[in-house]
Amino acid sequence: MAKSFYTFIILPEASARLHKLRLPGLVLHLLVVIGIISFFVIVGLGFSYAKMAFKVADYNKLQAENIDLKVQKRNLEVSTVKLGTKLTALQTLSEKLTNLIESDSWNKQRLPKLSVAAVGGSTVDYRTSDLIRSSDPDLDVEFLKGRTTELESQLKLLEQVAVRRASILRFTPTIWPVRGMITSHYGNRLDPFNGDSEMHFGLDIAALYGSLVHAPADGIVIYAQRKSAYGNLIILDHGNGLTTRYGHLSRFNVQVGQTIRRNDMIGFVGTSGRSTAPHLHYEVRMNDRPVNPRTYLPRG
Fold it and tell me: What are phi and psi of 170, to 5 degrees?
């Protein structure tokens, strides 16, 4: 069988000379097959390269996101630890304030009772799994948010109680109106003029004539004039049924209707009225009934 050949005539540009290329049919078929295979190989390599390039781009993107997430996680952990520390400090402060309010025996005895209802409870709906989980709660943002909400409510309540107590304290006679020695206590005593037994409704505090008399609490002057055995008398109304009286004064430094602040100077020690020597007669009355002023005064 005769071999088949293929002749290719090549005519170079700007040349009149022809070039002939004679190839056997088998070689030509082989070259065509090689070309087709090469084409598909190149196309496949192109797709593989493109796919690899996309994977590399995605990997780089994921790696960058991973690094960013690690940084955010680290920052969140640091912030959470700081927040936990602050919350712990605030909780400690809250407990100290609560203990201070509850254990203030001096105020318990002298200040009116605060009408605070005995209520409480969590304002956050915790799941049981959240409460018993083994992870560190100090690093749990939701846990800290819950603690923050509860702590804010608790501190707000303590603030209201403290404000209320401070307001009551301002209007409660808790300081000495004058410096001096008690020469006659509250209660039964012998009358200094005739020796008979009598009820003494206040304290007699000896002081030099003209010594300053100070208001022991905020109030309003409701009386400032001479009244028989009291001599020159001042009466302060502190609200909530609480009033104080100051007798035997030499002079007044206030007038009726005047608003008085704690430690304001209201008059001067004297010996007016039924008195044996310069001193201040000091009374405390609750709902116009005399009570022992000594229970309101600090010791010493």
Answer: -60, -30
Give the mean model confidence (pLDDT) for residues 224-238.
94
- 3-state secondary structure labels for all residues of 136-161: CHHHCHHHHHHHHHHHHHHHHHHHHH
DSSP helix/strand/coil, 235: strand
- Tell me what the mean pLDDT of segment 88-95 comes to: 75
Q: Flag whether pLDDT at 297 surpasses 50.
A: yes
Q: Enter the pTM of the model.
A: 0.57
State the pLDDT confidence band at 160, using cuts at 50, 70 and 90. confident
Q: Which CATH superfamily is domain 181-295 in?
A: Glucose Permease (Domain IIA) (2.70.70.10)
- Choose among 143, 151, 102, 98: nearest CA to 125: 143
Task: Answer whether 209's CB lies under 8 Å from 250's CB.
Answer: yes
135: left (phi over 0), alpha (psi -120 to 50) or beta: beta
Rounded-to-integer distance, Cα 238 and Cα 171, Å: 5
Could you tell me the pLDDT band of residue 212, with boundaries at 50, 70 and 90? very high
- pLDDT of residue 141 exceeding 70, the answer is no
Q: Which two tokens stand for residue 204?
A: 């007699």
244, 216 contact by CB (below 8 A) = yes
Angle (CA) 248 219 111, round 5° = 100
Q: Is 97 exposed, middle or buried (0-12, 13-18, 19+ CB in 10 A)?
A: middle
Mean pLDDT of the chain: 80
Torsion angle, CA of 66/69/70/71, rounded to 10 degrees? 130
Exposed e or buried b for every residue in 23-45, given b needs 16+ CB within 10 A? eeeeeeeeeeeeeeeeeeeeeee
* DSSP conformational letter for 243: E
